[in-house]
Design a protein that fits this description.
By secondary structure, this protein is α+β, with helices and mostly antiparallel strands. The protein is about 45% helix and about 15% strand. The protein is flat, with a radius of gyration of 24 Å.
């Protein structure tokens, strides 16, 4: 509430937010009132969490940490996920040592498995083959170094392995449980699922991962359409003709995050 008062002068709005912070939760017949934090599942939770981390992490990094570093540094944060990049290893080790204490001052803790110090330096120009020294996952993407078409080392990303497997399984399970619905309704639902995935993961350099999901969805749909009845068998040729009338979305780049 002290953080909100720095930018919000409307007392009635602040009182309303304060009441929402103490609202109870009804889970079936069980009723509970949280003693701290925001209500789980509340629409205010991501908004207030973003404001909270703005003062707890963003401003602290920009005003107190960066002026004390010997090299360049950058902070990229989305909601409660953040990546900190440092030019010098000693700067990274110092910030990592104090970051946990900084979060503890605000009642927060760092994820023990996701909080890691990685060597993500650009590979040397003499290295012609292989990949960079390490990779990391951020916002569902796996980030790594690769060679561009002109031979230079560039940062690239692809859909994380766990996220891609989860998407494939979700489509497979949906096709299995809804195989008896009309084909038109199945096609409309599959189209929405694939487009939603492509709209998020459709960045340049990630077309291969998008194609893997598209082919997996096509094979899953064919398999469970073929098992709608024990009498008629759906051949791949007939399924190909079906796709002409009900085509599934093709992988496409929606956002170009670099040139």
């Amino acid at each position: 509430m002290e953080m909100l008062q720095k930018r919000v002068a409307d007392g009635s709005l602040l009182r309303l937010i304060g009441k929402c912070l103490h609202v109870g939760i009804l889970d079936g017949e069980a009723y509970s009132e949280p003693s701290e934090g925001t209500v789980q599942g509340s629409t205010m939770s991501p908004i207030l969490g973003n404001i909270y981390l703005h003062y707890a992490l963003d401003l602290w990094f920009a005003r107190e940490v960066k002026p004390r570093l010997r090299g360049k540094a950058i902070l990229v944060r989305f909601a409660d996920d953040a990546v900190l990049g440092f030019e010098r290893q000693d700067d990274a080790e110092k910030v990592k040592a104090v970051l946990g204490k900084r979060m503890a001052r605000f009642g927060l803790t760092l994820h023990p498995e996701k909080t890691r110090l990685l060597n993500f330096r650009r590979p040397s120009r003499s290295q012609r083959k292989g990949k960079g020294p390490s990779t990391f996952d951020f916002l569902g993407f796996t980030w790594f170094w690769r060679r561009s078409r002109n031979g230079a080392w560039v940062v690239a990303c692809k859909t994380g392995r766990a996220r891609l497997s989860r998407a494939m399984k979700s489509v497979y399970d949906w096709c299995r449980s809804h195989r008896h619905q009309p084909v038109k309704e199945q096609h409309a639902a599959l189209t929405r699922k694939l487009r939603g995935h492509f709209n998020y993961f459709g960045v340049n350099g990630n077309v291969r991962s998008l194609g893997l999901l598209a082919r997996s969805a096509q094979h899953s749909w064919f398999k469970w359409l073929n098992r709608r009845s024990q009498r008629a068998r759906l051949t791949w040729e007939r399924f190909t003709d079906l796709l002409k009338d009900f085509p599934l979305p093709l992988p496409r780049v929606v956002v170009r995050i670099w040139r």
